[in-house]
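Q: Short-chain dehydrogenase/reductase SDR, please. Structure only.
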Amino acid sequence: MDLGIADRWAVICAASEGLGFSCAAALVAEGVNVVINARRPEPLKAAARRLQNINPAVSIKWVPGDITESQTQDTVLSASPMVDILVTNAAGPPTGNYSDWNRDIWYQAINTNMLTPISLIQIVIDEMVNRRFGRVINITSGTVKAPQSELGLSNGARGGLTGFICGLAKTDSLASNNVTINNLLPGAFDTNRLKQTFAQKASRCGDLPERIAMQRRQKIPAGRFGTPEEFGAYCAFLCSVYAGYITGQNILIDGGAYPGVF
Ligand SMILES: NC(=O)c1ccc[n+]([C@@H]2O[C@H](COP(=O)([O-])OP(=O)(O)OC[C@H]3O[C@@H](n4cnc5c(N)ncnc54)[C@H](OP(=O)(O)O)[C@@H]3O)[C@@H](O)[C@H]2O)c1
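A: Structure for Short-chain dehydrogenase/reductase SDR:
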């Protein structure tokens, strides 16, 4: 299926590996030119090479830097001649216990997982409206719908982002000008982040990471963790010409793990 977005430009934040990289890979396969970002230059450069191998015909730019810093945000966005597609992403906050989280730790989580995507969107959204095409995807988390106590920092910061996006996406001038904003909510996907979460939980409970992983897998009806490629393919569809009527949604991709109806 041709998604109708060849020759568009996409900026994908936090994309040298994991879910961000898979979104970039799926877009590149569709003929989209991309700017990718991550903090460490060497893995980012290697990711750019892998993307170019997927599609030698597209332009790939890579801009290292911490996307939570406003200077990096400006540099990353201005590396793209235009921003038709924006995928916001950054590391999730650490797991822990509510009593350990002071104001500084809270501020860092809110800055990374709420204020950073909001700032990026604010910079690009008016131009998307002017050009009558825009797709914004925020990578958030399944815990927005089903919060877990040890992920309290994520629950709080991402909950704030979710509320803001729901209102923004329904702004008449956006939806009527073919500019959509959606949140993708990963359940358990087989990435380094997931492995780190298991390791942190294992050291807190005095257990083995492999046992924690097995227990988590057993709670997923699909019987496995998701692959980053599955996530990237969904992202590319939401960026497509066929997804112009989908906006303000929180789309859970979790192998059936969420227990509720809505
Ligand atoms: N995987 C899952 O099962 C899962 C489930 C729920 C939610 N999530 C959320 O989804 C997001 C992506 O997770 P993932 O599993 O893909 O993680 P990952 O495999 O650890 O990859 C994270 C990527 O983001 C980059 N990055 C992190 N912080 C950054 C920053 N401040 N500025 C720029 N680049 C940054 C990393 O490169 P550098 O380290 O070089 O910067 C790397 O490329 C996270 O917010 C995570 O909490 C994941």
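A: Brief note, in case it's useful. The longest strand covers residues 179-186.
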